[in-house]
């Protein structure tokens, strides 16, 4: 009987097709880093909701500060300073001769503006911006914080915090001294270096390369720190985070991270409470997300990549801060 | 009348024989196609150094500089680290490898190109490595700085470290075609499948697209 080659023919064709198909198979997980899971926050962990989006006109939004406990807002970008009322309407617009990189509201209501090498102050009536202090050397200011007695300036180029009293007299800087191993104290791989003044007159500063938030007394000594590295929600991810920081009057913290864009709420001991917003909502242009908080719990986030100011409100009502009157807010 | 077929049944090819011939023909065509494909990818040729430039296969660069006088390279700004550089190259181990632009590196303790995102301890334990072949080496410099280097012989060009570095760091790691390894196929097998069109032609005088060099 003549052998039947029919099955061999099919086998050959099938093997050929399988071989060609195998050559086209995409690489497996071993060769592909999938970050999509990291970019999705657990909805149960999100304890804020976005209540408003402000898109101020003719400004490349960069920095925000809350005035009068959040009843008014100051926005800066390019060479423009905007003051907004409680409903987000433009009250005052200043076209400046410098580019403000950071804003800070003093407890007495004065607004301070930091440029790369100088500090300016908005007059009490809000009509003029005057030079407050010019810095020597080649600083690259990235943030400013103001208390009743101190003005702190974060210098990203030199890795130190310049300290002044409210009259503009220079005091010993923070971070000039080397640490125990002889290295610099502030680690700033990408020059994001943010500050926030606490209601008790002390200073909170991010140390992004160490993934820490540090508290400094008015004499410049380190009082405490908290924070840890990692991609998990309670930690600070990437090379250098958090990039930005804001502190509620009751001492809780709001932090912002670049790269894996996350804004999170921590309690007074640095324990994670929950997320304000995550990568699904926030984009990153490399400069980080400047923050401000209102006494009523709202969080203002500068989404510079989208040119927006995002307003988030807590899902749970915030207990009123003693001594503060409720502000007229627009939810 | 000589043309008349006496018995038409004799002139008919038996059905089973016809199918057998058809299958053989299909098999031969398939084999020919596969051969051409492998030849085109350089697998049928031997050492590029021994190539005579026979030009029998129009798809083969034969290890010689392509007729255009240009080389294949990856534009780091277009690369999306899909992983196909590791698997689509005609070579058993891809000619694409990771390179490090030290001038851009932050020398970070938590390096997104070195550690798996879920790593909980920042040490050199293998379970913490993002690189599937352990090609990224970490060396302590001073607290809290670490230097990262790519061991080229271990790198397979998958780009996982590149994606981690870009997502969480300064983007100092990136993929480049290693010109001393590349077969210089006229039709680069990776360029064909690259979803980002990141493969570009560069002149011999500038064979690499380097980052962090001013």
Question: Could you list some keywords that capture this structure?
Answer:
heterodimer, A: 331 residues, mainly beta, 4-stranded antiparallel sheet, globular, B: two-stranded antiparallel ribbon, two-stranded antiparallel ribbon, 5 helices, elongated
Structural overview:
- The complex is a heterodimer of chains A (331) and B (214).
- Chain A has 331 residues and is mainly β.
- Chain A is 5% helix and 37% strand.
- Chain A has a 4-stranded antiparallel β-sheet, with no helix packed on it.
- Chain A is globular and about 95 Å long.
- The termini of chain A are far apart.
- The model of chain A is unreliable at 321-331 (pLDDT under 50).
- By secondary structure, chain B is an alpha+beta fold.
- Helix content of chain B is 22%, strand content 15%.
- Chain B contains 5 helices and 6 strands.
- In chain B, the strands form 3 sheets. Chain B has a two-stranded antiparallel sheet.
- In chain B, strand 3 and strand 4 form a beta hairpin.
- The longest helix of chain B has 26 residues, at 15-40.
- Chain B starts with 7 loop residues before the first helix and ends in an 11-residue tail after the last strand.
- Chains A and B meet through helix 1 of A and helix 2 and helix 4 of B.
